[in-house]
Amino acid sequence: MPTVPRSDLLLPAEPGQRALARELYALAAEQPIISPHGHVDPGLLAEDRPFPDPARLLIVPDHYLTRMLLSQGVPPADLGVPSVDGSPVETDGRTIWRRFAAHWHLFRGTPSRLWLEQTFRDVFGVTTALSPATADAVYDELAARLAEPEFRPRALFERFGIEVLATTESPLDDLGRHAKLAADGWGGPGGRVVTTFRPDDVVDMEFGNWSANVDRLAEVSGEDTGTYAGYLAALRRRREAFIAAGATSSDHGHPTARTHALEPAEAAALYDRGRRGRADAADAEAFRAHMLLEFARMSLDDGLVLQLHPGAVRNHNRWLHARHGRDVGGDVPQATDYVHGLAPLLDAHGNDPRLRVVLYTLDEDTFTRELAPLAGGYAALYLGAPWWFLDSPEVLRRFREAVTETAGFYNTAGFVDDTRAFCSIPVRHDVARRVDAGFLARLVAEHRLPADEAAETIVDLAYRLPKRVFKFGGES
Question: What catalytic activity is recorded (predicted)?
Fold first, then answer.
């Protein structure tokens, strides 16, 4: 049967639109990568050590992959995912790889397969198709590449064309790895690798060891967190340290988008209940909601962009959480109310252009009904790209179709890869750029947008918008 050239991956099938999309994609493809939100370990680049074997690089840390196999009865321990309960896990990389390859058919049609195949081919130059029969051959080809100096982290960073990579750290992190990057000329304000302030573990009373974490916050900040006022002072002090390490944004992974303004005395009483271990689920939600307004006020003072990633029910698979801990594929999305949830924050600060809130969703139904009208009506709001369960070509297309008519392109904030898998960064951005090229080509073909404006827009979406919105290199 006829095949589509790999160069036309994800571009429109209609020949005229495909030709237009090729030209637009070529403009996007030459732009540097701005990666403003992700979870790459900064130690990877600070230490610049060779990557481990292919399984530990590509399979073990990728919960997109391991959760799919769990759904088919393959436990994460068989794929080398570390346990937190002391149960044994597979340690042989080749065995893990063979087991994964035996289930490769499970990923047909998924973005995980798309990303992995692009990583094999475009990053490592491996063109052998993965299958149970070729598992060892692909493993050996990848292992040979990983042994070469050109495939160490910093060399790949340069080859990927990454201009800025933002990692994500807790206020309890000593930022030592970022200090090493700064000393090597890679980090610090304006650096190539910067941190992001992620305070969930000291804000969410339902987070494991929350009170102990707040005690630790006192130690690292030098402020007394025995009182609510001291707690706020400690958070401000840590934000200062993060800004000194290059941070331009904070990030908040709350279960909902609820915001709520408490009087200072109410907030202090709620904080005290939490510290005494007497807060219930309603208290925890009220405190999270109140703290989003506090963080908005802090952002007005220190300039950090506020990212909000709501909508995940964390650790829904309780067996998985008990056996392997957090962030290993046990979370699921839930419906999220933005219109009412964000109203207190928007009433207070939504029309202040000094505040920059980048809003994400795991609830696709809200694209047209809530998110686009909100971003199209408040100076402080920008829409973040579809992420996590929604970062597929299909949803990226639907996102543009759903939000552009109300919010336009310039109330969106560019693509985020949201990944722990360093080697997938360029392929994920490539997928987004191809989808945007196809969408813009359709507008040109329908005479809804001149070709020269589409060309300008594709560069804005790929590069200029995320650089401006996330304050990398100034506001211009």
Answer: D-glucuronate = D-fructuronate
pLDDT score of 250 more than 80:
yes
Q: How far is CA 186 from CA 269, 418, 456, in A?
A: 43, 21, 30
417-440 burial code (b ≥16 CB/10 A, e <16): bbbbbbbbbbbbbbbbbbbbbbbb
Per-residue model confidence as pLDDT tens digits over 278-309: 999 999 999 999 999 999 999 999 999 999 99
Residue found under tokens 């930022």: 175
Region for residue 68 given its phi and psi (left: phi exceeds 0; alpha: psi -120 to 50; beta: otherwise): alpha
CA distances from 396 to 35, 117, 421 (A): 17, 19, 20
Contact (CB, 8 A) for 255 and 311: yes
Query: Does pTM surpass 0.90?
Result: yes
Give the count of beta carbons closer than 10 Å to the beta carbon of residue 159.
12
3-state secondary structure of 305: strand
| Residues 405-435 pLDDT 10s | 999 999 999 999 999 999 999 999 999 999 9
The C-alpha atoms of residue 158 and residue 19 are separated, in whole angstroms, by: 30
Residues 6+ apart with CB under 8 A from 397: 435, 438, 439
Helix (H) or strand (E) holding 394: helix 393-407
